[in-house]
Amino acid sequence: MQRRDFLKISPVLAGQAFPASAAPVAEALLIGGPVFLKSDDPAELAREHRRLGYSAAYCPPVRIHEKERLRAIEAAYAKERVVIAEVGAWKNLLDIDPAKRKENFDYVVERMAIADEIGARCCVDIAGSYSEKSWYGPHPKNLSKEGFDATVENCRRILDQVKPKRSFFTVEVMGWIHPDSPDSYLRLIKAVDRKGFAVHLDVCNAINSPSKFYNSGALIDEWFRKLGPHIRSCHAKDLEWIVELNLHFLEVIPGRGQVDYHSYLRGLRSLQTPAPLMLEHLKTADEYREGFVYIKKIAGELNYPLA
Fold first, then answer.
1. Greatest Cα pair distance in the chain
2. CATH number at residue 92
3. pLDDT digits (tens, 9 = 90+) for 77-87
4. How far from the centroid of its chain's Cα atoms is residue 211's Cα?
């Protein structure tokens, strides 16, 4: 299938930058999101993505032992030219309860195996949190050396156990968890030191200050300049500043906030291996449609085709 080849991750040196101009320009943008069709049929789901104008998708529900369904999903989406962008893991790999932590780890290993079996661009989780209140919540230890070292070890163990050949394991950037910046992600890539480790970029998660909010274009440019060759999938949403006596950013539909989508699409367009841009965290089909139409409009202003 077009664009199914994956680049091997190149060695990373601390502080190394990757100029976008050094890479060939991607042919077309891959945009996707959830669908609201009530069906378990991979063929019907793949066709629904194309009907909505999507060229990328989240992996539909499947377990690693369901070999026939795995093959059916891969074949159906390939037939419709829809890239499976990511297999979500979304478990706390730093849970303070040892039994729960092991259960979560085993689940993420299975999700990584599914991503490789199905040929998804990546499996994605967050590094996790030491919080007792929220699996992704803030905690003083999250950005500590202990948290960083534990994340390195978790990523290595997942990759060494699965040994992926087609997909990559990624941890999504977060504002209060490793990695929280482009340089933090570079450090993590170097420390993990595995070819199967790559980058999942959520620009909104990386915006955690007024300067980043008002200069999101420069922030986005930095992410793609430093980490472009490693980016395998991205999330699409927007941020609005809710005026209070302290900082409060609210996720909103793309186009209703301040995120610089011209810079975002320019960064995606610069990649040698196209990375899907996946709409998420919206509530209704109409909201997803609004977000997709906005992104399509920006792509049109930039004269970028959609796949």
1. 55
2. 3.20.20.150
3. 999 999 999 99
4. 23
